Amino acid sequence: MPVSAPLCAVHNGGRKGAATPRFSATLSVDVRNQLSARDAELAVIRAAVVENTVVQLQAQLKDAGTAAAESARQHASGLAAERARYDGLSKQLLRETAHQRETFQTERTP
Q: Which of 18, 45, 64, 75 has the most CB atoms lying inside 10 A of its own CB?
């Protein structure tokens, strides 16, 4: 790819024309070093972001587990209360039915 004249002038000490091979090689090494340093910094930043995300997700998971356990406990407690209520009503219905049967039999017998 051809290099524009102003770019060549800037990189070639103000002279017009192509960059010298030595300057080009130095520039290439400098650019590579800068890119390597930038890549290393980005890798550190990415690792920090990933670590932070992992910590946040673990906290959310713990909170969700705690909420699920509490919900299960409340559900079991509510279910036990309803079962006790059902058992009580069932016994009451059996007593009332027995009483009605006795009354009916008593009324039928002369």
A: 18
